[in-house]
Write a structure and sequence with these properties.
Layout: E1 3-11, E2 18-26, E3 33-39, H1 47-64, E4 70-75, H2 80-83, E5 86-87, E6 90-91, H3 110-118, H4 126-143, H5 149-161, E7 166-173, E8 175-176, E9 179-182, H6 191-197, E10 201-204, H7 216-227, E11 238-246, H8 252-268, E12 287-288, E13 292-296, E14 301-305, E15 312-313, E16 318-323, E17 334-338, E18 343-348, E19 353-354, E20 359-364
Parallel strand pairs: 3-4, 3-7, 7-11, 9-10, 10-12
Antiparallel strand pairs: 1-2, 2-4, 5-6, 8-18, 9-11, 13-20, 14-16, 14-19, 15-18, 16-17, 18-20
Helix pairs in contact: 1-8, 3-4, 6-8
């Protein structure tokens, strides 16, 4: 049995600055599989932290009863650096205030890092290849000399996550329904995760363009497989971002139920030798992220929505009005904002003041949109 709280000191970038990073390592050290769970990479997104708060006692009990069949790393607050980014009573937890970089962008390209070390070493044995890739990645991580607290943090997280069979990154949107981001190769394998979560949508992309955490390992295995034809290289890490509603939805009742569902998924996958409980109904099937419209405004204004979350809309239908805040018809004129595709409203903006270029909604469709190429993310 093992239920260990680890605390690591991240050396700061300014005199006297040190940040404590605490997380749990749970379960047998020699378990055949590993699960990595983390939340609040965007530090101002707490619903996932609430989920893991409720999941930890379940894992502790399962560990005490000897029910864990996997090794778990659980990081309920994976970005303690971002927790300190407070300015005038506002939490700026999405971005590193020193560099301006989104905490969930520009993660290392592990394929580029280890490609040369792997050249000519893969064999006809799938298990051998996965072990070799993981060992090579671990060696690369250990060889790095981090230049900042943010790099220390990223390397620590990658060290714990790189050899996990399941890597789940818990986030939330602005004002949103439950949904998932994952790689197309992992569907329909992760349909059961969508079912247990009750996801309104599962959005897939091989490369969304931002170097986000959930794409680090899939990109690694995808690129190694593509450059080593004939060698068996599986997608060895089932990696996904789980979006737990909106930022304001950090409530006990949501967290407890979401933890129950996540625990049920882990049990059904035989990662925990416990009863999963009543299985939820089937969630929506996956759709390409390129088929989801990110609706933006071309002028500043105040939003007045005409639609609710989950509501189905048609292309050309007004989903909101943008109330003018300046100009000859200031505070009088309303400009309709139209849907650019058929689908349903997955998310909306919580703040109703929208500067020019702001994204105000996501509409999940089924047909890829010509405009959705390259960088698919919101920022």
């Amino acid at each position: 049995m093992s239920f260990e709280l680890k605390t690591v000191a991240l050396q700061g970038d300014t005199p006297g600055a040190t940040t404590s990073f605490s997380y749990y390592v749970i379960g047998p050290e020699n378990a055949p599989e590993k699960v990595h769970l983390q939340a609040a990479l965007h530090a101002d997104e707490q619903p996932g932290t609430m989920v893991l708060h409720h999941l930890l006692p379940r894992l502790q009990r399962a560990d005490e009863l000897g029910l864990l069949r996997a090794r778990f790393t659980v990081m309920p607050m994976v970005n303690p650096l971002g927790m300190a980014n407070l300015s005038f009573r506002h939490h700026i937890g999405r971005y590193d205030t020193n560099s301006g970089v989104n905490y969930n962008r520009r993660w290392p390209d592990l394929f580029t890092a280890v490609r040369q070390q792997l050249a000519g070493r893969l064999k006809e044995d799938e298990a051998f290849n996965v072990a070799l890739i993981r060992r090579t990645v671990a060696n690369w991580i250990d060889a790095q000399q981090p230049r900042s607290a943010a790099e220390q943090l990223r390397l620590l997280v990658l060290r714990e996550a790189h050899d996990a069979e399941f890597v789940l990154d818990l986030h939330c949107d602005d004002d949103s329904l439950l949904h998932i981001f994952t790689s197309p190769e992992l569907m329909p394998e992760l349909q059961d995760l969508a079912d247990w979560m009750g996801a309104a949508a599962t959005l897939t992309a091989a490369d969304s363009g931002g170097g986000s955490f959930d794409e680090v390992l899939p990109q690694l295995y995808r690129k190694i497989a593509a450059t080593n034809p004939g060698k068996p290289v599986p997608m060895a890490s089932a990696t996904a971002t789980l979006e737990y509603r909106g930022q304001a939805d950090t409530f006990d009742q949501f967290g407890a139920d979401d933890a129950r569902r996540l625990y049920g998924f882990l049990c059904e996958r035989n990662l925990i030798d416990d009863e999963p409980g009543s299985r939820p109904g089937r969630a929506a099937e996956a759709t390409p992220f390129e088929a989801t419209e990110v609706v933006r405004v071309d002028r500043p204004g105040m939003l007045a929505y005409r639609v609710e979350l989950g509501e189905r809309v048609r292309k050309g239908q007004p989903i909101a009005d943008l109330i003018a805040l300046d100009g000859p018809e200031a505070f009088m004129a309303r400009t309709p904002i139209l849907a650019g595709t058929d689908g349903f409203i997955l998310s909306r903006a919580a703040r109703k003041y929208a500067p020019r270029g702001a994204n105000i909604a996501k509409i999940v469709g089924t047909v890829p949109l010509p405009s959705r190429k390259g960088y698919l993310l919101e920022d």
